[in-house]
Specification:
Strand content: over 45%
Shape: globular
Number of helices: 3
Oligomer: single chain
Largest sheet: 9 strands, mixed
Helix content: 10-25%
Structural class: mainly beta
Mean pLDDT: 88
Number of domains: 2
Radius of gyration: 23 Å
Number of strands: 20
Length: 265
């Protein structure tokens, strides 16, 4: 009888463990998409995002099955309001647990740049309107939130078409898991310098922002590593400064403290 009871207990334990595993495996996770921007020397950059989708395949076509919609509510976003650590939520949805390899932004036609008070339409190729594709490696776990940060570089994404006064939209976007990203912050003295601030790795500008009128700045979405921070004032009355060997360990924020741009007398 002792052996029978033991066998029954083992069977029950196995059944319970299997049930628990099945429950965990079938629970959905949640993917959230955030948008941020590196700065550009325009008054506004308006991007018309009609829909956001994800797929497990990195080369899936629009007409294939398996696409999951994160958000189907159109939104026009001013990228220049999303600098200095600010973000916009593009959507959030429950997804089956697993690895998602592709995200697509469906763009509309209401894309424009504002220069000297004039709104100029951005020519957007039809291929981008049908789906601006980004390869990602998003691991959505059951019962967990996965946040994907899209860093839309407005300065690199808008290209003037010769001397015609027309502008093309050629999006340059960096995708990073927020939990795998750190940040760099600091405070500019004097705040009037209003500098552009860039994080550079291996001679490539990874992220950028512009200090606020109060003098503070924050660059988010930086993977762990060592960066060079370049601080470029908006006026020649102040010094340009380069800070080398700035270490970032995700998900922490590296604080550079006060950065003095005053020109010595």
């Amino acid at each position: 009888m002792k052996y029978i009871r033991t066998t029954i207990l083992l069977i029950l334990s196995a059944v319970l463990m299997t049930a628990c595993n099945l429950s965990t495996d079938t629970n959905p996770g949640v993917m959230q998409i955030l948008l941020t921007d590196a700065p550009a020397n325009y008054e506004a950059v308006l991007i018309d995002i009609q829909e956001v989708r994800v797929h497990r395949s990195s080369d899936a076509e629009d007409n294939e099955s398996g696409w999951e919609t994160i958000n189907s509510q159109p939104v026009q976003v001013d990228l220049l309001e999303l600098t200095n650590g600010n973000t916009e939520i593009l959507g959030e949805a429950e997804l089956e647990a697993g690895t998602y390899s592709q995200i697509r932004l469906i763009l509309g036609e209401a894309n424009e740049v504002v220069i000297d008070g004039e709104s100029i339409p951005l020519n957007t190729p039809s291929a981008q309107q049908s789906g601006l594709k980004l390869n990602i490696n998003a691991e959505v776990e059951a019962g967990s939130l996965y946040t994907l940060l899209l860093d839309f570089d407005a300065s690199r994404s808008i290209v003037q078409a010769g001397q015609s006064g027309k502008y093309n939209l050629k999006p340059v976007i960096r995708a990073v898991s927020l939990v795998e990203a750190g940040a760099i912050r600091g405070e500019i003295e004097p705040a009037d310098a209003l500098p552009w601030v860039y994080a550079i790795a291996d001679e490539d500008t990874v992220a950028g922002t512009r200090a606020s009128e109060e003098g503070d700045f924050l660059m988010i979405g930086l993977t762990s590593g060592t960066y060079q921070v370049s601080v470029v004032p908006s006026s020649s009355d102040y010094n340009m400064t380069v800070i080398s060997n700035v270490d970032v360990a995700a998900p922490d924020t590296t604080d550079l403290g006060q950065i003095d741009l005053n020109t010595p007398e």
